[in-house]
Amino acid sequence: ADGSGDYTTVGAAVEAVPVESERRYVIYVKKGVYEENVEIKKKKWNVVLVGDGMGATVISGDRNFVDGWTTYRTATLAVAGKGFIARDLTVENTAGPTKHQAVAL
């Protein structure tokens, strides 16, 4: 979140992951709030997101059904690739109850 890494967004780091990797690909996500929606596509295998702790590293989105998104597309972090692992981070959807369906992960 401070802009000092190789990528300024989690999504950009995920896009750089090799397709169908048989080896784990670890992405260190520095502490901060990342306001974005991230999709780990079907061919992005063995992605590992490691943060600086729950509440310290936060991926935050606010997509919701009321604003025109399908429930599936409201996910702040959508994972279709096999072998995904996340640790020491928070994934949240801040849409709130008035926005009806909204998914974090």
Automatic annotation (TrEMBL):
Record Pfam families: Pectinesterase
Domain of life according to the entry: Eukaryota
N-terminal signal peptide: none
An example Gene Ontology biological process: pectin catabolic process
Pectinesterase catalytic domain: residues covered: 1-105
Keyword Oxidoreductase: no
GO molecular function: pectinesterase activity
Family annotation (Gene3D superfamilies): Single-stranded right-handed beta-helix, Pectin lyase-like
Pathway(s) served: Glycan metabolism; pectin degradation; 2-dehydro-3-deoxy-D-gluconate from pectin: step 1/5
Alphabetized UniProt keyword annotations: Aspartyl esterase, Hydrolase
Membrane-spanning ranges: none
Coiled coil: none
Protein name as catalogued: Pectinesterase/pectinesterase inhibitor PPE8B
